[in-house]
Design goal:
Blueprint (H helix, E strand, L loop, with lengths): L2 H15 L3 H14 L12 H8 L3 H13 L3 E4 L5 E4 L3 H15 L4 H22 L2 H15 L4 H18 L3 H13 L1 H10 L3 H20 L3 H18 L10 H4 L26
Antiparallel strand pairs: 1-2
Helix pairs in contact: 2-4, 3-4, 5-9, 6-8, 6-9, 6-12, 7-8, 7-11, 8-9, 11-12
């Protein structure tokens, strides 16, 4: 063993002894993803190899992997085809992170409303360009279901489905994910506010009328009219809903995770990813 090799081992031991050793692993994997040497579907080296490569303990590697799995960045499985891979579920991962951050930051409802309007104006304009007859049929079905609903929880779920379907139709994945995250961060306080309204049936009828205007503009493939109808609808809803500031912080924790799609020092040596022929 050369002197330089001995130095490397000592440095690695120092890192392993630190309480933040797992952060070395986190940074290492994140850098590999950011610079493109790890891509979706690729398998990470075994836990033992990563620990040796980075000079950290296996528990530190395990802790970092668990953290990244929880974030939706990695997936881990056992068995003949098991291992740790870069996740293909980037949409779910982004929604989870954004939903929590939006809610925990305790942004004023007015700020969230403005961002949501900007996003949904963008996605509905794109939807006017890309929407198909099948997409319109799905939206029509959601509207028809909403028309007969008298329960705020069910109505809110269908309302979310309607808005997310529009965003998804625009084929802008990032805008769609951000739209879903913002809606989910406020889902619980919105439902709570609806249940507290003295005249929720009137609110529901107005929301349905607004939805129909949005739908008509989509049928006509008119992006300007569609964007204006969407903005008017969102502003009217938030102006009426009695959402209290202290209702926002708990929203992300209590919001269900089945979202509504119809479907983030010195750099150690880079991960040498292993590609599985059967990886997605």
């Amino acid at each position: 063993m050369t002197g330089s090799e001995g130095s490397d081992v000592t440095a690695g031991s120092d890192v392993a002894a630190g309480s933040r050793a797992y952060e070395v692993v986190l940074s290492h994997i994140e850098e590999a993803i950011l610079d493109g040497s790890l891509v979706i579907g690729q398998q990470l080296p075994p836990e033992r190899d990563l620990a040796t490569q980075l000079g950290v303990s296996r528990p530190a590697v395990r802790e970092a992997i668990h953290a990244l799995v929880a974030q939706g960045v990695l997936t881990a499985s056992v068995g003949p085809r098991g291992g740790t891979r870069v996740a293909a579920l980037r949409t779910e991962a982004l929604k989870k992170v954004l939903r929590l951050q939006v809610a925990l930051a305790d942004f004023p409802v007015e700020d969230v409303t403005e961002v949501r309007i900007a996003l949904e104006r963008t996605t509905i304009a794109a939807a006017c360009r890309d929407i198909t007859d099948e997409d319109l049929a799905e939206l029509r079905a959601a509207l028809d279901q909403m028309a007969g609903v008298e329960d705020p929880d069910v109505f809110n779920d269908l309302d979310t489905r309607y808005h997310v379907a529009i965003a998804t139709t625009g084929r802008n994945t990032l805008a769609t994910d951000m739209t879903i995250a913002i809606r989910e961060s406020l889902r619980r306080p919105i439902v709570t506010a609806e249940k507290q309204m003295a005249d929720w049936p009137t609110f529901r009828r107005q929301a349905m009328a607004d939805h129909e205007k949005v739908y008509d503009a989509l049928v006509d493939r008119d992006p300007q009219r569609a964007a204006e109808a969407m903005e008017s609808h969102i502003r009217a809803a938030y102006a009426i809903l009695p959402i209290e500031p202290d209702q926002r912080a708990a929203a992300a924790v209590s919001a269900p995770n089945d979202a509504r799609t119809p479907s983030a020092a010195a750099r150690p040596a880079r991960v040498a990813p292993r590609v599985d022929a059967d990886a997605p």
